Amino acid sequence: MLPMVLPPVVAGTALLFALGRRGLVGQWLDNWFGVTLPFTTAGTILAATFVSLPFFVTTVESALVAQGRDLEEAAAVNAAGPMTAFATVTVPSIRAAIGAGLALGWARALGEFGATITFAGSLGGRTRTLPLQTFLALESDPESAVAISVLLLAVSLGVLVALRGRWLTR
Q1: CATH code of 150's domain
Q2: Is residue 24 classed as helix, strand or coil in its secondary structure?
Q3: Number of domains forming the structure of the chain
Q4: Cα dist. 99→49, 92, 162, 165 in Å?
Q5: Per 3-state DSSP, what percentage of the chain is helix, strand, and coil (rounded to 5)?
Q6: For residues 43 and 119, is the Cβ–Cβ distance under 8 A?
Q7: Apex CA 140: angle with CA 135 and CA 142, to 5°?
Q8: pLDDT tens-digit map of 95-142
């Protein structure tokens, strides 16, 4: 839940100090595997995933709590092991919540700005996302900024409309 309440720039700074070339883990990734994450496409994806993961987790967690353990216990009585019960009972029963969590997380990731610019920068054609492009366009091409903003608004609204039925029926 921490990434949900952290200011996005702080999240990006945390990623930089943890996974940067001199970071706590990043130095080992670089030395042992030659993997560098900051200011790369993978870094952009990691920053967006980091800040959006709580949306997925809370959605799936709520479904698991609401479901209870009755179905898993019934599977155990029928000799299903924990992994079999999880794969054949739990996951199918929360499939809608998994989909909703993925959609909410993706929508949040789509709009990520602070952690992305801090951890991955804004390198054209490499790490520049639509929100970063919108910000840059405000200076020189306001019409383009408005067009990108309308596109992002339409996508976000589409996700909310698609999930509306799920929220109203639960």
Answers
A1: 1.10.3720.10
A2: coil
A3: 1
A4: 16, 11, 11, 13
A5: 80, 0, 20
A6: yes
A7: 65
A8: 999 999 999 999 999 999 999 999 999 999 999 999 999 999 999 999
Q: What gap in Å lies between CA 131 and CA 13, rounded to an integer? A: 18
> What are 3-40's pLDDT values in tens digits?
999 999 999 999 999 999 999 999 999 999 999 999 99
Domain that holds residue 144: 2-169
Residue in 120, 99, 97 with CA at minimum distance from that of residue 49:
120
Q: What are the two backbone dihedrals, phi and then psi, of residue 53, each rounded to the nearest 5 degrees?
A: -55, -40
- Rounded to two decimals, the pTM is 0.82
Q: In this structure, are residues 61 and 101 in contact, taking their beta carbons and an 8 Å threshold? A: no
pLDDT at 166 over 80: no
